[in-house]
Amino acid sequence: MGKGVVLVVDDEAPIRDILGFYLKRAGYQVLMAGNGVQALDEMSRLQPDLIISDLRMPEMAGDELCKRVKGAPETQDTYFIIVSALDGTASRIGGLSIGADDMISKPFHAQEVLAKVDSAFRLIGMQKEIKRQNRELSAFQGRVEAELALAARLQMGLLPSLPGEIRGAKYTHRYLPAEGIGGDIYTIAPLEDGLIGLMIADVSGHGVSAALISAMVKTSFENHIRLSRDPLAWALGMNRDLCRSTLDDQFATAWLGCLNPTTHVLTHVVAGHPPPIRVRQGSRGGLHQPELLQGKGFMLGLDESLPFSLHEGQVLPGDRLVLYTDGLVEVEREDRSMLGDEGLLKLCAELPETADEAADFLVGRARELNAPVPFHDDVTLVVFDRFS
Fold it and tell me: Cα(125)–Cα(284) distance, rounded to whole angstroms?
């Protein structure tokens, strides 16, 4: 197989013959043309890798041929060498300015031309390899993007379906992963004895690895709420599961709650996560005094021996809980300030009546306050309303 295809374009047959002889002897396949028109005709049959063209020719000169070749998308990458009797810097600049890749001055030595051609083909080879790698990279990127899109759809399937209603309560969520797929997760699940289990978690990191661990967190939570009605037991079991199933630098923050709709008692555990905001009679809309539920605790997945604390409160009919991950409040604005938990608390003082309106209001106001800085972390917001 030849080293490549070279098209020699010159109106002088002896020059074409000399160049053709040396190029063929060097292993190249050679095409011949007496002017630019003939060259284009040859190119319609076989695409050359490189063109060596005289500058001055009848019917179509070398500069016009170069413009045609470099101006067409299908031939623009063809290496083009102009041969000219015009010497000097101005001539060389003129040739390169029309798109030629290199120039050779007449009179020339055949060995000089061969050296130029060999050098050009090394460059052509590198360009082809780069294009091949780019094609492979583009194909790989396409596969990755398709798989990420599928993973994002699957992850959305892990979230509760909306609109949500459960045992005298309504809820909605706003889920905004930073990279299309993220590490936030939440669950609201019916338990035996009429109880309601609630969980929101934020896994360290972003992307696929965080999403995989968030799925593990959800699975662990669902396993433990089948075994117990005690959020403290859930936290201990989930911490043990994560410690045994993740790497040392992987962890999750979480809030776990169990609501008894009959007694209105909410028992809950804070595991390194922002506790929910409770708005008394907030589901009726209007002006209210929101408050953060109390509690602190270690993150899940750090150490199996870490203790957790159980807290207790009330969520009465008409009350609203706002659960969120820190991506909503920890955007550093241009003045280096953040919305923070206290800022979100103030926004919760006067929320619209419905859960959907309240969720849109909070996300919208957070975006306005952060502008022009976007959310850079996964954001999950849950508004949970008990019926009046």
Answer: 71
